[in-house]
Amino acid sequence: MISESTAHVPFRLFSPPDVQAGAAVALGRNHASWFLVLARPEELCPSRPIFCLNFALPDDRSAFDARSAGGKHVFAVGGAMSDDIMDHLTALLDQEGCAPVNVVEVYPNNPFYLRALVEVLVPDRELMYACARCGKWETQLGPRFMRCGGCRRRCYCSTKVRSCVQLCS
Q1: Are 29 and 41 in contact (CB under 8 A)?
Q2: Are 1 and 163 in contact (CB under 8 A)?
Q3: Terminal C-alpha separation, the chain
Q4: CB of 130 within 8 A of CB of 28?
Q5: What is the pLDDT of residues 23-62, one digit of tens each?
């Protein structure tokens, strides 16, 4: 069963100090991955995701849909670009001056380049989502994608796309 999109709640926009000359960005999800995404497609940069933010070690199932004690999403930042990612994440602010994440734990140097565990402060309804089938991202002023009524995790961009998908039980 697929539920229709909820009332249009725009995703929360953040202003980065130096990404795409100040273009607005949002925190987004595509399956189990977290992204920093341009809020609107730009002519000079057709790819909307700027960075993949999370890092999961192979076979670490605990990294997917992890939650803090307060019930908020958490993910690990790591990999070769982890310092750049942390710099960008910690510099972002919305129009009220709120950050998208809170650094929960900073890891010591390690061979996996894991840098930190961060807690997402943005509510689910204000995150940007990619279609679970085709990968297309939601748009700033367009309708929100429909959520799967079974798992409530997947989002689909249209009824045509969702009709091709085997539904959750």
Answers
A1: no
A2: no
A3: 8
A4: yes
A5: 789 999 888 889 999 887 765 556 788 889 999 877 777 6
- What does the alpha-carbon distance between residue 131 and residue 114 come to, in Å, rounded to a whole number? 28
pLDDT at 72 over 50: yes
Number of H helices, E strands in the chain: 2, 10
- For residue 27, the cross-strand partners are 36
Residue 76, classified by CB atoms within 10 Å of its CB into exposed (0-12), middle (13-18) or buried (19+), is buried
Backbone conformation region of residue 152, classed left if phi is above 0, alpha if psi is from -120 to 50, else beta: left
Which residues make Cβ contacts (< 8 Å) with residue 69, sequence separation at least 6? none
Q: Say if CB 107 and CB 115 are below 8 A apart.
A: yes
**Residues contacting residue 53 through CB under 8 Å, at least 6 positions apart:** 27, 33, 34, 35, 36, 75, 77, 85, 89
pTM: 0.79
- CB atoms inside a 10 Å sphere around CB 143: 13
Segments in the chain forming alpha helices (H): 82-91, 159-163
What whole-number distance in Å separates Cα of residue 92 and Cα of residue 77?
16
- Which tokens sit at 166? 């085997």
- Over its C-alpha atoms, the chain yields an Rg (Å, rounded) of 16
Q: Looking at the chain, how many residues does it have?
A: 169
